[in-house]
Amino acid sequence: MRSFVVTGVTNGLGNELIRLFHELNIGKLYLLGRKIHRIQSVVKSAKLYEVDFSKLDIDVLEKLMKDVFRKITNNDEVIFINCAGVVNPIEFVENITNDQLLTSFNVNLVWPCMLIKELVKEVQKKNCDFRIINISSGVAYKPLPGWSLYSTSKASINIFLETLAQEKRHYKIVSVDPGVMDTNMQREIRSVEKKDKEFKYLKDFREFKEKNLLVSPKEVANKILMTYVQNWKASNSYEKISMYNEE
Ligand SMILES: NC(=O)c1ccc[n+]([C@@H]2O[C@H](COP(=O)([O-])OP(=O)(O)OC[C@H]3O[C@@H](n4cnc5c(N)ncnc54)[C@H](OP(=O)(O)O)[C@@H]3O)[C@@H](O)[C@H]2O)c1
User: Is the CB of 157 under 6 A from ligand 1?
Assistant: First the structure.
């Protein structure tokens, strides 16, 4: 039996992924997110956990992992998909507030690392196969003015996972750049209008939308399904989903 633990499922790519998994009935779904009840009617059989990743709460983490683990049985295959993410603030370093810094790192880095660490302990105990699909970004290794927090957190989780892959060579682990997708995150990027002069590349994102160049999250979800869930085609620790054709 397969068990999926997925974050970032209330919107965008994560939401498309779990709709697919639900339709195909390919495993048990454990879904984590803010105001998670919003998706109850979409994925009726899923187990939903209300978590706001901007707040670091070890008690909540431990309680929810205990509950998930109770349901995972020996020799299950566990697939963790880390899809939750925040891009804001898009701001020069000196203007970033401490709250923004903590939120960005908590959502993009700290919570997923803590979840992975707990999952590793449990899958070892239960002799489960383990797969991690980390939704990364093209800017993980590309410094852009204004994106210090987002890039730092995306790059850091990639290296965390590359290290884990060295420790546990039998796990299947990939960080994947999904491309520029037509989701709320892109809406947020386009709405940083007043900063056009400071961050010149922002106009490129607006042009992507105007010229209809954004990728649909549904298409990306399908590719992830075929590339890393139904099969395992990853040949690098970090790769772009655009290198795979939809089947
Ligand atoms: N869109 C792009 O062009 C693009 C490009 C490269 C990489 N990515 C990556 O792709 C992944 C999916 O992004 P997307 O484009 O689908 O973005 P999205 O539509 O904005 O969805 C982001 C998801 O993360 C969740 N999230 C954000 N803050 C949270 C918090 N504090 N606690 C719990 N959940 C939280 C959101 O929940 P709420 O519904 O509660 O807000 C939502 O489910 C992200 O990791 C992003 O970094 C996106």
Answer: no
Give the ligand 1 atom nearest the CA of 10: 43
pTM across the whole model: 0.97
Cα separation, 161 vs 158, in Å, equals 5
Peptide bond just before 89 cis, omega within 30 deg: yes
Q: How does strand 2-7 pair with strand 47-50?
A: unpaired
Looking at the predicted structure, is the pLDDT value of residue 195 above 80? no
Which single residue is written with the structure tokens 């399908």? Answer: 222
Element (H, E) at 175: strand 172-177
Atom of ligand 1 nearest to the CA of 217: 16
CB 147 within 8 A of CB 198: no
The amino acid at residue 187 is R
Break the chain into its structural domains and give their ranges: 2-180+217-242
Mapped onto helix, strand or coil, the DSSP state of residue 184 is: helix
Residue 247 has pLDDT above 70, yes or no: no
The architecture of the domain spanning 2-180+217-242 is: 3-Layer(aba) Sandwich (3.40)
